[in-house]
């Protein structure tokens, strides 16, 4: 006899709730049909379901996301970096207290040696006909952030070495839920051919029909639940082995919304607005915002970041603020809407010549007009860089390009050999946006405060009565 085992999965929703009612409807219907037909079926999530860019995730600190997974009938999940490093320690510790599904993550550890009741390194699922499927979860090791929040992420390879042997003794099939990214998934498949399937995420890669590396089938379904993933495994009970592995992704952007989920989201949104409706400050006149110019509020926020972090200088891109503040009462909901990014302050050490190069790069047209997606940035364009603790004098060439004439600190030209502590957005410590910042040997992140928390501080200080 041959038995088919069905896994439907999502990854990297990032609280894109406009799509969630469609995903929930599609997945609930798929699972219901399989179970009615007597087939073994599970729903799993690969992490980054939570993203505090959305007011529902912000107001409930991710617990509403968990409730939505419960409502959709999920069986299993692992955590992503957005669950892991955008929540304070206690918020993550209790995030899944009311989950009606299992949570597996073998490389997440609390530095106080307490283990959340919901956290398991591995688990076993059993099909209707007795096939045992060992499940292990892993998440990306952003320890520069995790350790400031009281957690540690151990090496994925150490965790695999520890648990794969145990799983092989009791499981017929081994599946890894990986929030590590495609390159790591491929490397794991090369090192551990005993893993039958890797369901992945984190790098938002879309593998429409999966890919095979050695003995392992790797799959992932992009981002924001535009696609739902499906893995079909065929187990031969006579031969006692897996004889077929298939992976598919389905575009669900045109499917009907699940009405119950849509109603729940509307209720959650109303509740979130009430939670975040606390007044922060009352302003007499509108506060203007400009992505490509200098505005008082952006300057004041940059100065707040400099003072908060006790840095020598600070620099923030004006695209962090998405809209004007109207006159009247300003609430936390307004601040979240205008500065939704899950971005923390960071201080890096740069030599004067490196800082000068960063300033030059940040004032180029290409940088200011870059429509960045990712690295925590949830805006439209990066915008103009605003500085505190520095006087940056610029000019314009005949072709209209801006250039840096000189940079002064405390009335003196920037010292090329001196090391400066530079506060900025943690966005620039990733990738190649500002290479000198990303390559800095010392990076001190400030958690759990987001830049919008410092925006609230700035508004109270500068505009409060």
From TrEMBL:
Q: Name one Pfam family in it.
A: Metallophos
Q: Does the keyword Amino-acid biosynthesis apply?
A: no
Q: Which UniProt keywords apply?
A: Hydrolase, Nucleotide-binding, Signal
Entry annotated with the keyword Disulfide bond:
no
**Calcineurin-like phosphoesterase domain: which residues?**
8-205
Q: Start and end of every 5'-Nucleotidase C-terminal domain? A: 291-427
**Record SUPFAM superfamilies:** 5'-nucleotidase (syn. UDP-sugar hydrolase), C-terminal domain, Metallo-dependent phosphatases
UniProt similarity note: Belongs to the 5'-nucleotidase family.
Alphabetized PANTHER family for the sequence:
5'-NUCLEOTIDASE (PTHR11575:SF24), 5'-NUCLEOTIDASE-RELATED (PTHR11575)
- Name recorded for this polypeptide: Bifunctional metallophosphatase/5'-nucleotidase
- In which organism is this protein found? Virgibacillus xinjiangensis
Lineage, highest ranks first: Bacteria, Bacillati, Bacillota, Bacilli, Bacillales
């Amino acid at each position: 006899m041959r038995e088919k085992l069905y896994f439907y999965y999502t990854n990297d929703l990032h609280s894109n709730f406009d799509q969630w009612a469609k995903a929930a409807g599609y997945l609930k219907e798929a699972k219901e049909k399989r179970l009615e037909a007597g087939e073994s079926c599970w729903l799993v999530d690969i992490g980054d379901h939570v993203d505090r860019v959305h007011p529902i995730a912000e107001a409930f600190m991710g617990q509403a996301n968990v409730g939505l997974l419960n409502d959709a009938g999920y069986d299993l999940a692992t955590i992503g970096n957005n669950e892991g490093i955008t929540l304070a320690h206690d918020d993550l510790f209790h995030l899944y207290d009311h989950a009606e599904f299992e949570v597996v993550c073998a490389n997440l550890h609390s530095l106080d040696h307490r283990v959340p009741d919901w956290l398991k390194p591995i688990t076993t699922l059993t099909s209707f006909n007795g096939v045992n499927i060992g499940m292990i979860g892993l998440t990306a090791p952003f320890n520069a952030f995790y350790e400031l929040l009281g957690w540690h992420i151990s090496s994925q390879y150490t965790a695999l070495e520890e648990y794969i042997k145990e799983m092989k003794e009791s499981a017929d099939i081994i599946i890894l839920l990986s929030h590590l990214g495609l390159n790591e998934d491929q490397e794991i498949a090369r090192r551990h051919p005993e893993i039958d399937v890797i369901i992945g995420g984190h790098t938002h890669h879309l593998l429409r029909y999966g890919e095979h590396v050695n003995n392992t089938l790797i799959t992932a379904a992009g981002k924001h639940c535009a696609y739902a993933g499906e893995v079909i495994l065929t187990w031969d009970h006579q031969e006692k082995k897996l004889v077929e592995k298939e992976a598919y992704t389905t575009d669900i952007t045109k499917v009907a919304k699940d009405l119950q989920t849509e109603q729940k989201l509307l209720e959650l949104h109303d509740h979130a607005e009430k939670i975040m409706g606390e007044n922060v400050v009352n302003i007499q006149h509108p506060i203007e915002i400009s992505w490509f110019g200098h505005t008082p509020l952006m300057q004041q926020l940059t100065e707040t970041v400099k003072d908060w972090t006790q840095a020598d200088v600070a620099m923030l891109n004006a695209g962090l603020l998405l809209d004007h503040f109207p006159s009247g009462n300003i609430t936390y909901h307004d601040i979240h809407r205008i500065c939704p990014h899950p971005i923390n302050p960071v201080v890096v050490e740069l030599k004067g010549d490196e800082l000068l190069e960063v300033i030059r790069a940040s004032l180029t047209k290409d940088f200011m007009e870059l429509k960045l997606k990712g690295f925590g940035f949830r805006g439209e364009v990066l915008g103009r860089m605003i500085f505190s603790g520095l006087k940056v004098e610029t000019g314009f060439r005949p072709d209209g390009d801006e250039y840096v004439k000189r940079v002064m600190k405390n009335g003196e030209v920037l010292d090329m050999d001196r090391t400066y502590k530079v506060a900025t957005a943690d966005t620039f410590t990733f990738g190649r946006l500002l290479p000198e910042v990303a390559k800095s040997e010392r990076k001190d992140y400030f958690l759990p405060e987001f830049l919008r928390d410092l925006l609230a501080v700035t508004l109270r200080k500068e505009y409060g009565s």
